[in-house]
Specification:
The chain is 66% helix and 5% strand. With 468 residues, the chain is mainly alpha-helical. The protein has a five-stranded mixed sheet with strand order 1-3-2-4-5, with helices on both faces. A hairpin with a 2-residue loop joins strand 6 (437-438) and strand 7. Helix 11 (284-292) packs parallel to helix 13 and helix 16 crosses helix 18. The radius of gyration is 34 Å and the shape is elongated.
């Protein structure tokens, strides 16, 4: 009978996954709780191994790559083989416990019955070390999984989460198995030592449980923020009026609304980066990707291959049906930033725009006469990248309350030698936008401070009536 049970379980690990799980659920004493616990422990270790492999491939930092490789090696050499071995040992040892238990129940002679009971309890005591070791190994796997969750590639935190929970569940399960066995075994020097180990595992379980909960709460918070960000954008786009042409102040109000919302959700958009300056949170490329879940590229070749058209002269385009945005890398950074903000304006004000191409000229967009959509997208980009309250403060720091008008007299402080070159309002505006010196004071130009083109800043100065 004993040999039959052993033969049946010898090939346990050779079964398919489904057959293996079916055997656990067949209603027999073995494979039982210890085997199941070890199996979940192996699963936790293997998932951590996967997180390490993917993170090693995706994360560029060389020191981090080395660390991920080291964790994979530890799991391969110290944890996974031993947990697999314990999975087999648990079944073998517990088979002997069950063997003596069955004969103890069947035996009528009291002496032989007592012998089987003594042998059963000895084997039971011997078996306790297995869940204790499984629990200890899984506590260590859990510690590795916590670090992998924190340092690993963010997109595989689902695997990290399952690894964390599985290792923790295995540790808790092993403590429960040990507790059940302690009900039957006698108290001696060996079992006292085992009880001490059990109590140490319980302390570790409680500590690890706190750490795992922190990670889950962090992930939950991030998930809620990310979803709420998308919902906020949905609310904003739904709130846009159906008017054919919207006023400048109406467009500015939406630019301000988006800017304030982006600041609130900056930790999600920029993956927890420590952004303390609101001006740093005006990068529309990132906002489009995280707020609207659009695919983004700056590769001409990728666009040519995917959409089969030439992108020469195209600064950017948006395809709302395919949720795809292209910003050309063939222009200066100030043009790329304005292009991205321009496309963001299209996403907010012009639903259903399909494969819309924009051609840049000096940081503002060429547009057909009476092209309302382009005008609105330009205005949105301008107000988004150069908010009125920020511009007013920056202007006053540099020029005080000066208003530069057509007489050119106010421009004398800018060391203009030939005022005739600045006769047009746009020329004066561009000069103020690029100025780095005024009445003996040197500073960063307004265009550079806001990281926009001189033309874009000049238009905003005119709109704000700083240049008449």
């Amino acid at each position: 009978m004993e040999n039959e049970e052993k033969d049946e379980n010898e090939s346990l690990l050779k079964h398919s996954l489904i057959k293996f799980l079916e055997k656990i659920g067949e209603g027999n004493a073995t494979p039982g709780a210890g085997t199941a616990a070890a199996t979940v422990g192996v699963l936790a270790a293997q998932l951590s191994r996967t997180v390490g492999i993917i993170s090693e491939k995706r994360i560029e930092d060389l020191k981090e790559k080395l660390w991920f490789g080291q964790q994979k090696t530890r799991l391969d050499t110290e944890y996974i083989p031993r947990l697999v071995k314990l999975l087999e040992e648990d079944t073998d040892v517990f088979d002997e416990v069950i063997f003596h238990w069955k004969w103890m129940k069947k035996e009528a002679e009291i002496v032989k019955k007592s012998e089987h009971k003594i042998n059963m309890l000895e084997k039971l005591k011997e078996s306790i070390h297995i869940p204790l070791e499984i629990g200890d190994l899984c506590a260590q796997v859990n510690e590795i999984a916590i670090e992998l969750f924190d340092r690993g590639y963010h997109e595989v935190r689902g695997d990290s989460s399952v690894s964390l929970q599985s290792a923790l569940a295995t540790l808790a399960s092993c403590i429960s198995i040990v507790d059940l066995n302690f009900i039957k075994v006698e108290c001696d020097e060996t079992t006292i030592g085992m009880m001490d180990r059990r109590n140490e595992l319980k302390v570790r379980l409680n500590r690890l449980d706190v750490e795992v909960r922190k990670r889950f709460e962090s992930l939950e918070t991030e998930s809620q923020l990310a979803f709420n960000l998308k919902r906020e954008f949905q609310v904003i786009t739904d709130a846009v009026s159906d008017k054919k042409e919207r006023s400048t102040r109406y467009i500015e109000s939406f630019a301000d609304r988006v800017r304030k919302m982006v600041w609130e959700y900056r930790s999600i958009i920029w993956n927890g980066a420590d952004i303390t300056d609101p001006m740093e949170a005006l990068e529309a490329e990132d906002i489009i990707q995280h707020g609207f879940d659009y695919l983004y590229t700056n590769s001409d070749d990728a666009v040519k291959e995917a959409l089969d058209f030439k992108v020469s002269g195209v600064a950017g385009f948006v395809d709302q049906n395919k949720k795809f945005v292209y910003i050309s890398r063939n222009y200066p950074i100030v043009v790329r930033r304005f292009t991205a903000a321009h496309e963001l304006g299209h996403l907010i004000f012009h639903k259903g725009l399909t494969l819309h191409r924009d051609f840049s000229l000096n940081g503002n967009f060429q547009q057909r006469k009476n092209d309302i959509k382009e005008t609105e997208a330009n205005k949105f980009a301008s107000y988004f990248l150069i908010p009125s309250d920020f511009l007013i403060d920056a202007f006053r720091v540099r020029f005080g309350d000066a208003i530069f008008d057509h007489t050119l007299k106010s421009l004398e402080g800018l060391n203009v030698r030939d005022g005739r070159k600045l006769r047009s309002r746009r020329e004066r505006s561009k000069f103020v936008a690029s100025a780095k010196y005024y009445w003996g004071k040197r500073f960063t130009s307004l265009a550079d401070a806001f990281n926009v083109s001189v033309v874009a800043m000049a238009i905003r100065l005119e709109d704000q009536k700083f240049v008449l």
